[in-house]
Design goal:
Layout lengths: L15 E10 L2 E9 L17 E7 L7 E8 L6 E3 L5 E5 L2 E10 L4 E8 L7 E2 L13 E4 L5 E5 L32 E4 L12 E2 L2 E2 L17 E8 L2 E7 L6 E6 L6 E8 L9 E6 L2 E8 L11 E7 L16
The structure holds beta-L-arabinofuranose.
The site of beta-L-arabinofuranose has 13 residues, from strand 1 and strand 15.
Length: 327
């Protein structure tokens, strides 16, 4: 690609990309997206249309630079335990290594989380032979705190199978809570020092309103659906996520990386396409929202493109809502 990356335009157009996890490594912005295949698929609530097979890593030297595709960094065929569907990944740097975390369905069709390591932010990444023991569901997002403790957040409803883990084991026919019950939250686990296993059993995160009441499952404008992301700003932890069926990116804040998190508001209003998925990163003095939409493919749910724009805070630490097409 030779065109400079402009706000609210696809970062690359030669492939479809989605679910961007952006990080600053070695003085540049690296983006870890899903790689949507350019094929015609019927959409269903199980997410079968998201049938991805590999990861390409993108980078930008700075805001407005050309976005570079560094090619294939990991392929499904090289992951011994994974059968299909390489969904939203994330990356982290620790112990002088780069780690790529990713979900996929195992041989029993159960979504699990895997990890692969490499010496460069662009890979190639070598996957561990097995999925992370005790892992389940989708959308891993890793946050390394200032004290170097690393936390992995994950979980997604419907095709992401989170409802099926309410008892701690996989129940294929389990459904989500009733509308007047607390919504399911994402899960969090602290990662071991080598980043390859969970230190403890994952715990569900509670998201509450300003009065301390849990957000209910029927509150689809605010309840957690998928795509967690955690960042820190002025000492507070911000958990942002997709509301799925109402297609928004919203956020909640806490003084503790394990929560509870208090719901605050909307970061990004709905984009073209069913899914919405994002990350938030600081580069130099500015903050950026990386997100995706299906505008380039004319609205095909399974052919998305990663975009970015500036994210701004108010003086009280709240985030200004972004209108994706109101430029
Ligand atoms: O890309 C496949 C799935 O769609 C992701 O894992 C979800 O977050 C949604 O964006």
């Amino acid at each position: 690609m030779t065109k400079p990356a402009k706000f609210n335009e696809p970062l690359v157009t030669h492939i479809y990309t989605a679910d961007p996890s952006a990080h600053v490594f070695e003085g540049k912005i690296y983006i870890y997206p899903s790689h949507d295949l350019d094929h015609v698929m019927e959409s269903n609530d199980n997410g079968d249309q998201y049938d991805m097979e590999d990861y390409h890593i993108l980078s930008m030297d700075e805001e407005g630079a050309v976005c570079v595709d560094h090619g294939e960094a990991l392929h499904l065929r090289d992951i011994p335990w994974a059968k299909q569907q390489l969904w939203a990944p994330d990356a982290a740097f620790k112990n002088e290594k780069y780690y790529l975390f990713f979900p996929a369905r195992d041989q029993d069709d159960i979504f699990r989380l895997g990890v692969a390591t490499g010496s460069s932010p662009t890979g190639p990444f070598k996957p561990e032979p097995n999925y992370i023991p005790g892992s389940f569901s989708i959308d891993p997002a890793v946050f390394v705190d200032h004290d170097e403790r690393a936390y992995i957040y994950f979980g997604g409803l419907w095709g992401g199978q989170l409802e099926k883990w309410q008892t701690g084991t996989f129940m294929p026919d389990a459904e989500g809570p009733a509308a007047n019950e607390p919504a399911l939250g994402p899960f969090v686990a602290e990662l071991s020092d080598d980043m390859l296993t969970f230190k403890d059993q994952p715990k569900e995160i509670s998201i509450v309103d300003k009065e301390g009441h849990p957000i209910l499952a029927g509150d689809e404008e605010r309840r957690y659906f998928e795509g967690p992301w955690v960042h820190k700003y002025n000492g507070s932890y911000y958990l942002s996520y997709s509301t799925g069926s109402t297609h928004k990116i919203v956020y909640a804040t806490s003084q503790n990386p394990l929560g509870p998190f208090v719901y605050q508001g909307t970061i990004l209003n709905p984009v073209i396409g069913w899914t919405t998925h994002h990350s938030i990163v600081q580069f130099k003095e500015k903050w950026y929202l990386f997100y995706h939409d299906s505008s380039l493919s004319g609205g095909a749910d399974n052919k998305r493109s990663v975009k970015y724009t500036e994210l701004k805070y108010n003086e009280d630490g709240t985030i200004q809502t972004i209108e994706p097409y109101d430029l």
